[in-house]
Write a structure and sequence with these properties.
Elements: E1 6-11, H1 22-41, E2 46-52, H2 58-66, H3 70-87, E3 94-97, H4 101-116, E4 121-130, E5 135-136, E6 142-145, E7 154-155, E8 172-176, E9 184-194, H5 199-209, H6 216-227, E10 232-234, E11 236-238, E12 253-255, H7 257-276, H8 281-285, E13 289-294, H9 300-314, E14 328-330, H10 345-353, H11 360-372, E15 380-382, H12 384-413, H13 428-449, H14 453-474, H15 476-479, H16 489-511, H17 516-526, H18 562-597, H19 606-610, E16 614-624, E17 632-637, E18 642-647, H20 655-658, E19 662-666, E20 672-674, E21 677-679, E22 682-683, E23 685-687, E24 693-695, E25 707-708
Parallel strand pairs: 1-2, 1-13, 2-3, 14-15
Antiparallel strand pairs: 4-5, 4-9, 6-7, 6-8, 9-10, 11-12, 16-17, 16-19, 16-25, 17-18, 19-22, 20-21, 23-24
Helix pairs in contact: 2-3, 3-10, 4-7, 5-6, 6-9, 7-9, 11-12, 12-14, 12-16, 13-14, 13-16, 14-16, 16-17
The structure holds one RNA strand.
Length: about 700
RNA sequence: GGCGAGGUAGCUCAGUUGGUUAGAGCACAGGAUUCAUAACCCUGAGGUCACGAGUUCAAAUCUCGUUCUCGCUACCA
């Protein structure tokens, strides 16, 4: 494999609507940072970009809710998130933001370029519109009852209570969050990116070229999308928060956030180039650049399908790999900020790092544990007990303990100096140690190149373990007792301590990408400059000069106490309880307010009503629609004809139980195909507070086809 | 419902193209030791590789079916 000329590494842009938790950290930022630190130690030309994603509908919505502005929200969270990353040692070369004019300009030009080349399509469709506010409603501007869990505050794109993703059409009693009124449907025109045009390219590029070097889950997810038939995807939205659509007809529209956000990687690179007096273009245009996106699995489709298509159309390079991580759960449940079941980076920093008994070493403790359970091939689980065991049992007992006993012995037995080597007394153990160091370097290097961070870190710790074994075999503290009787005793001690010291220097180099604060502290102990940490120095046994005096011992980490763990667990549970109580309160309030708030749809005139042809019908056949959970296919007798009507009531009724029932039919509703079957009409149903459905029918059976008015 | 990923020791995970007795760390048990943050070191126990069938001289690995977990996605005119 030949070495790329330069690297561009991206980590998913965090959404600037709140704090980010350690699941995010473990998913994208930490592995990206490890990779970048490794590349930089290799002296490669690398730029590490990230920044806040500040557009989309969630942010203005939140602003309305909190009685503030969208700008205020992003101005609040952007610096906090940026600082959180710094405190945890995530060393971006640039942490930009998509609200920056440079980004607006970049995204704008990107869109114009694609538009001019004819790579986009326009389409007109019906969307919810708020008449009183005179504006189209993006998904998140519509609220209603969740069809899944009955939560009253579900958004048009997702229910925050049960987590189910929704479309505005699914909501029961949709309401505009702007005016509280029921929205109407209105025509609007948007630009679309026709993904379907690029199917052949994607098949070739992902399913063939990257079938073996990308992670299985990533290729699998892409395959699923490609095989499922790619659709044109809307690039613009009716909204006023975001990058304005820069072409005629785009008034009142902005770029859809999924289109604008990844371009943020490019604008961030531009800003970095400006700050550092460099040229950004080769990083996005030169084939010799290796582009790697670090993301969580929820982002696969954007980074593997959509953004690459955009990049290809725009003439940029494509990602070389997209090492997406699975999810990290917490104490037996999914992490979720809204449910209070998460550990925010900000909280961890305040509680562990910025405390009297904390400090930077506690940042490395978190980095260490997160990497050791990194969800590289399947979902993993963070537990506080696991955190404690990992830190105390491996980081402290194996790694730090080796360094500490080396330092203590060196001060006791070799006067605090690097002792000389006595070649005539070197034995197999000494040679084996040197070989192991070289082997470990090779292993760690190979693993890092393959994005296997968990295993790579394990190998480094294992090297420290081997150091402990080496010392145990040599027993310099025993040899020290024979100084009077054995004339070679001091030489034996010298050789052992020399080996342990050189091993420590190697450990510092190898652990540096994972635990940068620790590596730095080790340099301090060894009285060497950071340059010693260059990767090329690993595998060498002359890093510390003979006769050089080193600093007194100093502990690299402190242990994590049982009480601290218990306190965290208690707090986590209390947090979740509190959030749950708030949620339930909201639900109750919403239900109570319902009569006034969502009572009636806007008034209509008689003529509107008269357009609807209501008829009595009798169900004569009913069966479940295959491959659909909710649909029943009904044959309804309307007297003058028999019709096929589909109804989404399969969860409520058995087909055999409803045959013979009389129902009310909207007989002149435009036909609609669902699951390949055409439905000609609609059956009216009443729904009670629990969501139970009832047929609406005449009090006594009457002739099918009778009109209702 | 469709698709994708996963189910291996109490826990967290490895297992390359099917090939002796299925590995590692933690936790556990026993031993040894004291330079070290009661740390280290040695030894040990612990598995019907989710379940069922099939292909094969040989299956954790390949095929089919079942089941559970996670993710994406479809259906409520």
């Amino acid at each position: 494999m030949n070495t790329p000329k330069r690297y561009l590494i991206t980590a998913a842009l965090p959404y600037a609507n709140g704090l980010k938790h350690i699941g995010h950290l473990a998913g994208a930022y930490l592995p990206a940072d490890i990779y970048v630190r490794y590349l930089k130690a290799q002296k490669r030309d690398v730029v590490f970009v990230c920044g806040s994603d500040e557009h989309g509908t969630a942010i203005p919505i939140q602003a309305t809710k909190e009685g503030t502005t969208a700008q205020a929200i992003i101005d609040k969270y952007h610096p906090i998130i940026e600082q959180n990353f710094k405190d945890l040692g995530i060393a971006f070369d640039i942490y930009h933001r998509t609200s920056d004019p440079l980004h607006h300009q970049t995204a704008s030009e990107f869109f114009k370029d694609l538009e001019a080349k004819g790579d986009l399509e326009t389409k007109t469709s019906q969307q919810y519109f708020d008449e009183s506010a005179q504006t189209f409603l993006a998904d998140r501007y519509i609220k209603g009852t969740c069809p899944n869990c009955g939560h009253n505050e579900a958004y048009g794109d997702q229910c925050e209570k049960c987590g189910k993703s929704l479309s505005p059409e699914e909501l029961i009693n949709p309401l505009s969050t702007l005016s509280g009124n029921a929205p109407i449907k209105k025509e609007t025109t948007h630009w679309y990116l026709p993904l379907n045009r690029h199917e052949d390219f994607l098949r070739e590029w992902i399913l063939k070229d990257h079938a073996s070097d990308w992670r299985a889950a990533v290729v699998g997810q892409c395959k699923s999308w490609i095989e499922g038939g790619l659709q044109a995807r809307a690039v613009t939205r009716d909204l006023d928060w975001g990058v304005k659509v820069p072409v005629a007809g785009g008034e009142g529209k902005v770029l859809y956030v999924w289109f604008d956000a990844p371009i943020g990687y490019i604008s961030a690179t531009k800003q970095w180039a400006i700050n550092n007096d460099k040229d950004w273009k080769p990083y996005w245009n030169d084939k010799d650049t290796k582009l790697v996106h670090f993301i969580g699995k929820d982002n696969i489709v954007f980074h593997c399908i959509i953004f690459p298509i955009m990049l290809k159309l725009h003439g940029n390079i494509l990602p070389d790999n997209v090492p997406a991580n699975e999810f990290m759960n917490l104490e037996g449940d999914k992490m979720s900020t809204s449910r209070g079941w998460s550990i925010e980076m900000d909280d961890y920093i305040k509680k562990w790092i910025k405390k009297d008994n904390g400090g930077e070493s506690l940042a490395d403790c978190l980095r260490f544990y997160l990497t050791s359970i990194s969800p590289e091939s399947k979902d993993s689980e963070f537990t506080w007990k696991g955190f404690q065991e990992s830190v105390n049992g491996e980081l402290v007992s194996i790694f730090a303990n080796f360094v500490n006993r080396t330092w203590v012995l060196m001060h006791k037995l070799t006067k605090g100096k690097v002792p000389p080597i006595h070649p005539d007394l070197l034995d197999e153990e000494d040679n084996a140690l040197l070989n192991t160091v070289k082997e470990t370097k090779e292993k760690v290097t190979a693993l890092l190149e393959q994005y296997k961070f968990r295993e790579a870190q394990f190998e480094v710790v294992n090297l420290a373990r081997i150091g402990n074994q080496y010392m145990q075999k040599k027993e310099p503290w025993i040899v020290a007792k024979q100084l009077d009787t054995d004339p070679t005793a001091q030489a034996k001690i010298d050789n052992c301590m020399h080996g342990c010291l050189q091993l420590t220097a190697n450990l510092a180099i190898l652990i540096n990408p994972f635990l940068p604060f620790t590596a730095k502290k080790m340099c301090h102990l060894m009285k060497v400059v950071d340059r010693m940490l260059d990767w090329e120095n690993a595998g060498q046994f002359n890093l510390l000069k003979v006769g050089y005096s080193l600093r007194p011992p100093e502990l690299l980490f402190r242990k994590i106490e049982d009480e601290e763990i218990a306190a965290e667990l208690a707090e986590l549970k209390a947090n979740a309880e509190a959030k749950k109580a708030t949620m339930e309160n909201n639900t109750i309030t919403a239900t109570q307010e319902a009569p006034e708030e969502k009572g009636l749809k806007p008034e209509i005139v008689f003529d509107d009503f008269a357009k609807i042809d209501l008829r009595v019908g009798t169900i004569i056949e009913a069966k479940k629609v295959e491959k659909a959970d909710k649909l029943l296919e009904l044959l309804v007798d309307l007297g003058f004809e028999k019709r096929t009507i589909l109804s989404g009531i399969a969860m409520h009724f058995n087909p055999e139980d409803i045959i013979g029932k009389q129902v009310t039919i909207v007989a002149n509703l435009a036909p609609r195909k669902m699951r390949g079957i055409e439905s000609k009409g609609m059956i009216l149903m009443a729904e009670d507070a629990e969501g139970k459905l009832y047929f609406v029918n005449p009090s006594e059976a009457i002739a099918p086809g009778s009109g209702i008015s």
